[in-house]
Amino acid sequence: MKALSPFLAQRLARCLVLCSALCSAVSPAGSAFAQSPAAPPYLLDNTEVRDIRAQVLGRDYQLYVALPDSYRDSRKRYPVLFVVDANYAFPVVRNIASRLHKHAGMEEVIVVGLSYAKGDAGTYSRRRDYTPTTPRRHSYRSDMPGRQPAFGEAAAYGRFVTAEVFPLVARLYRADMGRKVFVGHSYGSLLGLQMLLSQPRSFEHYILGSPSLWYDAGIMFEREKAYAAQHRDLPASVFFGIGGLERLAPGKRRSRSEEDADMVEDLREFDAALNARRFPGLKTRLRVFDDEDHASVFPFVLTHGLRAYLKSSK
After folding, report:
1. Which residue range is the domain that position 210 belongs to?
2. Backbone torsion region of residue 210, taken as left when φ is above 0, otherwise alpha when ψ lies between -120 and 50, otherwise beta
3. DSSP helix/strand/coil, 34
4. CATH number of the domain bearing residue 269
5. Which residues pair with 236 in a beta bridge?
6. What is the distance between the alpha carbons of residues 273 and 271, in angstroms, rounded to a whole number?
7. What's the pTM value of the predicted model, to 2 decimals?
8. pLDDT tens, residue by residue, 244-261
């Protein structure tokens, strides 16, 4: 084949550059126009984010805060819902609480979501911060490469909430700190039980969904017995909720392990143990939601848990 002249080679190179530029501007749909700029994110009304340094833990977190619609135009103080697992639960709680106010006349509330630690994966953070102990036997794997899974810091995390989060919220918002509600689910409910059995007056009401009572061979049953042996009262209001499908599969033998736990029966047993103590200041309610499982039950637990505590005009 005859070689191209320098003039033709230069023209061919320019054509290739032009074709390359045109091809890079073509979208996957075939448009010859550059892709449009990224669309702005959807933002929840009346919400804001606060950074907080957990001095007692040496870690950084965020608080997601939702204010009532009437907040800007009023001087009143509002009950406060403190919600763990906020990356999932904060928008759910914020929207359900708002809907219950608008359509069922329920009191307005401030919602404070407690984020996972900055720089930590969600599973890593919640296992460490929400569990009461390091399990005596486990085969958990870390979701953070190069770091072993961590457990057992619920007591320290609870002190962070009461000693650092509470004062910040009280200082920045018109929060009625005499009407604080804890909202948790699964491991989050383990944290709630840890606080209930160590510093019960931290909250005026606890909403605890599907607590992982199988954790560490049923350690919270041991904690409940230890509390009862040393105290004559447990001043608290507690709403327990769980899905009716959170049961052990037929034919399997129930145990205090994650694989063979009957979470419904575990919760019934725990609630019965609390009530058998006849603590004068304790009030518990337990609701099993038929046809709901561990993943779907949280909105039902939240709705009924709020109705058990907040006032309604209807």
Report:
1. 47-307
2. left
3. coil
4. 3.40.50.1820
5. 282
6. 5
7. 0.87
8. 999 998 889 898 888 899
